[in-house]
Design goal:
single chain; 436 residues; Alpha-Beta Plaits; 4 domains; eight-stranded mixed β-sheet; four-stranded antiparallel β-sheet; 19 helices; 14% strand
Length: 436
């Protein structure tokens, strides 16, 4: 931000930023939901105001540990003053603001002391976790998995804003048609590196208001998520189960890959999520999807699907550490990894019972952590000799997709932001033997 641009920022925008940051750090709801509620409750804010507040707050969430270290003893404990100091530190250290600009806004007291602290602190003395802007528990695991040099590359990528990724709906249009239409509507996009149905923008855009979106020509979906659907590789007229459908992005993609034939069953424990999926199905022109509410992975209603599914996708609940580019507040939430691992293995085992002999089971997460990925698959295979892992790279290569450094020695897909420009994803493809 230039000096001229900072001069245009009003005092109210600074206090709005600190108020919103304080609410998010309070931890009552995810950052995107808290921000949506905040803007809804402050409808007088203009587009420019919202843009500044959103950019500043997300900037603070991405760099929270560095900001705390930079502020040092100038960082108060009182929540409101703490949020104000974090905002001021971010503007001084990362947005190019001068101390006198902050003072002229009347934003916070003792600005000179904070400026001195930020300008003189020895950043080289910061620990890896502080430099990487990660909580200690996550920094320790990434260091163990990747080593310091690559772990820092990964952390730097996680601390950058994500691209805006879209998936073309082949039931409505081709990728070339979508690219041409979006260019006409004022939001040009580029083809993705891997996904044959993907297009991308480097900045945010109000695409939900466009005629092409309302007509169902595309959906918002990260490129890595699109590649997981391609690993399911469903065929026309098959029966496919999306065991943890969630918002339904992969459900929609799988249905499109099946050319609106066969049956896709979207299971989820949240009735609200399934209700939200229905208008997306209608917009996409999809009518081969059936939604089903389940109590949990042991729901009695699952019995009628035993050994009937050609393909089952388990997009397991996880730490979400691979999505930190989009959801930086995830880093600062408490996570019970032990409980997550127990749930992940339980879901995978229950879903496996639905796969017919010769069928395919795909286990996927948006986690970076070995404990939630490789270790879960290894534990499952150790007690289920009726399943074998098949190489993910071969499945994608058959569809014309080649990913450099994208696969583990065992054959699972591992996508990383600093290598592939996607969110962090893991996916293992398991096949049930025809003769048990």
């Amino acid at each position: 931000m230039t000096a001229t641009e900072s001069d245009k920022i009003h005092r109210a925008q600074l206090f709005q930023s600190s108020e919103l940051l304080g609410l998010i750090l309070d931890g009552t709801m995810p950052a995107d939901k808290q921000m949506e509620l905040f803007f809804r409750n402050n409808r007088q804010m203009g587009k420019r105001d919202r843009g500044f507040v959103a950019e500043t707050v997300y900037g603070c969430l991405r760099r929270l540990r560095t900001l705390e270290a930079l502020a040092g003893e100038q960082l108060p404990n009182e929540p409101r003053a703490r949020a104000e100091t974090l905002i001021a530190t971010y503007l001084l250290a990362f947005a190019g603001w001068a101390g006198r600009t902050l003072e002229s806004k009347g934003f916070m007291s003792n600005t000179s002391a904070l400026v001195t602290q930020v300008r003189t602190v020895d950043r080289k003395a910061f620990s890896f976790a502080i430099r990487a802007n990660l909580p200690d528990w996550l920094a320790e695991r990434l260091l163990a998995q990747f080593g310091e040099a690559e772990a820092m590359q990964l952390a730097d990528a996680l601390n950058q804003p994500a691209t805006l990724d879209l998936r073309v709906n082949p039931h409505k249009a081709t990728r070339d048609q979508v690219m041409a239409r979006l260019a006409e509507e004022g939001y040009p996009v580029e083809p993705m590196r891997y996904s044959p149905l993907g297009v991308r923008r480097n900045d945010r855009a109000p695409l939900f208001t466009l005629t092409s979106f309302k007509a169902g020509w595309f959906e918002v979906q990260d490129e890595g998520s699109q590649l997981i659907s391609m690993l399911v590789a469903p065929k026309k007229r098959e029966q496919v189960i999306d065991f943890c459908a969630g918002a339904g992005g992969k459900t929609l993609h799988i249905a499109a890959l099946m050319e609106n034939t066969g049956a896709v069953f979207a299971f989820d424990i949240s009735e609200r999520r399934l209700d939200n999926l229905r208008p997306r199905l209608a917009r996409a022109g999809v009518d081969n999807v059936r939604t089903q509410l389940i109590r949990d992975e042991h729901d009695k209603g699952l019995k009628k699907f035993l050994e009937r599914a050609d393909r089952v996708l388990v997009d397991a609940p996880c730490s979400g550490t691979g999505t930190v580019r989009r959801n930086p507040d995830i880093k600062w939430r408490p996570i019970d990894l032990k409980a997550l691992r127990t749930t992940q293995l339980s879901i995978l085992e229950s879903a496996a019972r639905l796969v017919k002999p010769g069928g395919r089971l795909v286990y996927a997460t948006c986690s970076l952590l070995k404990e939630e990925n490789d270790d879960i698959v290894a534990a499952f295979l150790a007690t289920h000799d009726g399943f074998v892992m098949i190489p993910a790279n071969e499945i994608l290569a058959a569809q014309g997709v080649v990913i450099e450094e994208g696969f583990t020695a065992e054959g699972a897909m591992r996508l990383l932001p600093h290598r592939h420009g996607t969110d962090g994803f893991f996916a293992a493809v398991l096949e049930r033997k025809s003769s048990m």
